[in-house]
Amino acid sequence: MHVERMRQSEQAPAPSDEGGTAAGPASHGDLPSSDRAARRAVTLFPLLVVAAGAAGLFWPTHFTGWAPAVPWLLGLVMFFMGLTLAPPDFAAIAKRPWAVGLGLVAHYVIMPGLGWLIATVLDLPPQLAAGVILVGCAPSGTASNVVTYLARGDVALSVSVATVSTVLAPLVTPPLVLLLAGEFLDVDAGSMVVDILKTVLAPVLGGLLVRLAVGRYTDRALRLLPWLSALTISVIVLVVVSGSAARIRDAAALVLLAVVLHNGLGLALGYATGKLARMGAPASRAMAFEVGMQNSGLAASLATAHFSPAAALPAAVFSVWHNVSGAIAAAWMSRAARRREQRPSPRG
């Protein structure tokens, strides 16, 4: 999702509600325009995804033959992400290498590990097990930055972790899938690297280069990017769900249980990582979403290409669920932060 409006709205770091500083905006009251825009995006995005998933589930025959478009659609989303990147994003990474490094390690350790653990404990069939693990090994989700903003979290940290996890995905995701899912299915890590380079890294770099070359023209279109991204991701969900509609009905309860556990534990452990590292509340909120929200569109594309449509089921369900749970968690965190800020200061 698009973060330029949030970046423009950020002021100097404000005091955290639990110590430290918040790189993101500490108060939304004086930012009505950008706040409303971001809230509309993150509120409508889950609704669009749910509607797309429902359409694919109940009218799958209407979308027969759309599957080859998924990698191209994912590449388009990644291109949009590249367009939103700017030099300050990379400067933020350089200024906070420890925090970004911790977020990156947490992301690529917690979610892959949880995927393997859940697949093993639930004794999932091989295709579903590989799909759950693949979701866990994917880079950060495209909506995590907006959700972090709405949760009154550290937006700069969120953008940094999402950017680095995406850039490193070709090097990290295939070996992790091979290591953790290899016991369930044969994994061709080499061809997976090529696919991630084509559908993720190349479009992101392309968008960044376009932004650097003709930024004065692309800046005018940045307001449209969250909606274009939301629509594109919704079409990806539609196609993936429609291609696996019958299997989703047959294994709905089991897949949903695996996805809810995976996402919920990821959010909780991501937040706990930030708290244990004493990063402050805003950074801990960012860690929750950077760990718990995955690029499930990439996972679905890779599962379909390298395993089977059945392996794409967890990614399809995750695409719907993590956006809904992320929006709910962000609303709860934001209200909790507001209540803390409104408490009278203790008298010394």
Structure characterization notes:
75% of the residues lie in helices and 1% in strands. The protein has 348 residues and is mainly α. A two-stranded antiparallel ribbon has the order 1-2. It is globular. Residues 1-33 are annotated as: Disordered.
List the helices and strands and how they pair.
Blueprint: H1 4-9, E1 14-15, E2 21-22, H2 32-58, H3 70-84, H4 87-95, H5 97-121, H6 126-137, H7 144-150, H8 155-181, H9 189-213, H10 215-218, H11 225-243, H12 245-276, H13 281-292, H14 296-306, H15 313-342
Antiparallel strand pairs: 1-2
Helix pairs in contact: 2-7, 2-11, 2-15, 3-9, 3-11, 4-8, 5-6, 5-8, 5-12, 5-13, 6-8, 6-14, 6-15, 7-8, 7-13, 7-15, 8-9, 8-13, 12-13, 12-15, 14-15
Structural domain count = 1
Query: Structural class from helices and strands?
Result: mainly alpha
Taking Cα atoms only, what radius of gyration do you get, to the nearest Å? 19 Å
Sheet with the most strands, sense and barrel status = 2 strands, antiparallel
Using the alpha-carbon principal axes, give the shape.
globular
The CATH topology is what?
A: Na+/H+ antiporter like fold
Helix content: over 70%
Alpha-carbon distance between the termini? 44 Å
CATH C-level class: Mainly Alpha
The CATH architecture? Up-down Bundle
